[in-house]
């Protein structure tokens, strides 16, 4: 699914808009307009690195915003971002529909579009994206609340992902085609933060200072530690001994 | 009937369901046998929040009934490999004071599942409970190693109506038996489970389970294996549903329809499966449970993430059962007793203080003619 989204976003703008229109009608995003200064929108013309560097220097952009943007970029769901005020109004409007995230000061609001299909692959890429976001947000902004908006029919799909977000405050609001924010769910249904609070961090994140005095952020997913063949052999042996095989 | 007991409850079948808010242990206390001079005991699942055996509520409970022979278990059963049914079971079996005659578990590919749990536990990238899951799983394998060598003592359950246990109750003249059979998982569910477990490993077969699939296993796949036990004691029928979800009940109902000469789902006492969740509700199965005589439906809550049971489900259950009990509820559930579901109450319920431990749960006592004699809270101060 990730590849499919990338293909659509990277190639044909009309196709992209049609795709986005289908899942994200513009009227649902009217609430974003008051927060334009902090908005970054998609553009296929910028490389992620240049955008990251630019956003780092932007006084409007908090570390939390950057973390979210980076999470989006590294999750491969968007290819790059750029400042909203660099574009014409129609372009902004059009591009804004493709936002998969939005940062506001104070709390962090993460808007993510659920994959349109219900396939396992979709859920998986969605789960991975969410996990990356959660880890970054937990690290940079531990007191943040992640707000998830979801169509009611997507809720089942979201539940599994939300359940994994331990240690993070979560609000869930539902919307349907007629009314935005029409229903707010009981957060206790989803909140698992009460039991465990230790976020593990398979992401590395640091600021690198270069010789010209500039600072640039570096985010690198930690490679999952594969067990060595020797360790695997040892595990098999231990199990075989216990099972008398 | 019973001619020799001073305590009338000794002649009853007692089901002690422990569950302080997360996890469940079911201790079966069979009627006193005059010839053997003691009771028979069985254990279905176990949960201990602590790895310390001194703080294991099931072990405390058994120790507190040491004089009645509770430390000599006729059988221990692991219904499925989920933390809230597994943690502490290895410690109970391995404890010096206890002895276990037979161990029952679902029929699954044990080496593969073991590999899944151990690789997860030892990989740096994993989170949360996996290291403990690995330790608990290995401790269970170690504890049951001796039993595994004897097929009669290590039973893999997977056939509908497979007979597991049969004992005659020696003081009843009419020759009443206690027998236990497993109703689930069916072979189709076992196959499905095996297929899903295979997918928990990387496609390149590097041997390390991915976290995504491991979580998925934990969330949905493990319940496919859940053992459902049907216990008969004379005319009395008890069903322990473990974490069987709707799919399992569909299989059981279908299997039962094929046989039909006797209903296996019609029962007097039901341990509601999967903490009373909506996923586990199968109307047809409940109709059969409540066909004539369902006296008590007992629910063990789940307080991690989702809070189960929901009130709407308890209301649904009460359509089929005369009484609905929740193990962590103090008082009478029918009168809206407060459920003990918060973490604080959960911790308090199993706290150790000096030589006593508070244990939350319910005891149901039933005779061999299906009469429920009493349902009561387990004494909150059990002296070890």
Element layout with pairings:
The complex is a heterodimer of chains A (245) and B (384).
Chain A lengths: L1 H9 L2 H11 L16 E3 L5 H10 L5 H12 L6 E3 L5 H8 L11 E2 L10 H21 L4 E6 L4 H9 L5 E6 L8 E2 L18 E7 L5 E7 L7 H15 L2
Parallel strand pairs in A: 3-4, 4-5
Antiparallel strand pairs in A: 1-2, 5-6, 7-8
Chain B lengths: L12 E6 L6 E5 L11 E4 L12 H8 L7 E7 L4 H4 L2 H6 L4 E8 L3 H13 L7 H14 L1 H4 L5 E4 L4 E7 L8 E8 L2 H12 L12 H11 L6 E6 L2 E5 L5 H14 L9 E3 L11 H7 L6 E4 L2 E3 L1 E3 L2 H10 L2 E4 L16 H7 L2 E2 L2 E2 L3 E6 L5 E6 L4 E2 L1
Parallel strand pairs in B: 3-4, 4-5, 5-6, 10-11, 11-12, 12-15
Antiparallel strand pairs in B: 1-2, 1-18, 2-3, 7-8, 8-9, 9-10, 13-14, 16-17, 17-20, 18-19
Helix pairs in contact in B: 4-5
Structure description:
- The complex is a heterodimer of chains A (245) and B (384).
- Chain A has helices at residues 2-10, 13-23, 48-57, 63-74, 89-96, 120-140, 155-163, 229-243, and strands spanning 40-42, 81-83, 108-109, 145-150, 169-174, 183-184, 203-209, 215-221.
- Chain A is an alpha/beta fold.
- In chain A, β7 and β8 form a beta hairpin.
- In chain A, α4 (63-74) packs antiparallel against α6.
- In chain A, 28% of the residues are buried.
- Residues 1-49, 60-65, 70-119, 139-145, 149-153, 163-208 and 215-224 of chain A have low confidence and may be disordered.
- Chain B is of the alpha/beta class and 384 residues long.
- Chain B contains twelve helices and 20 strands.
- Chain B has helices spanning 57-64, 83-86, 89-94, 110-122, 130-143, 145-148, 187-198, 211-221, 246-259, 283-289, 311-320, 343-349; strands at 13-18, 25-29, 41-44, 72-78, 99-106, 154-157, 162-168, 177-184, 228-233, 236-240, 269-271, 296-299, 302-304, 306-308, 323-326, 352-353, 356-357, 361-366, 372-377, 382-383.
- Chain B has an eight-stranded mixed beta sheet. Chain B has a seven-stranded mixed beta sheet with strand order 7-8-9-10-11-12-15. Chain B has a three-stranded antiparallel beta sheet with strand order 16-17-20, covered by helices on one side.
- The relative contact order of chain B is 0.14.
- Residues 334-338 and 340-347 of chain B have low confidence and may be disordered.
- The A-B interface holds A 124, 127-128, 160, 163-164, 166, 188-190, 192, 194-196, 200, 202, 222, 224-227, 231-232, 235-236, 238-240, 242-245 and B 110-111, 114-115, 118-119, 122-125, 127-128, 138, 141-142, 145, 148-149, 206-208, 211-212, 215, 219, 304-307, 343.
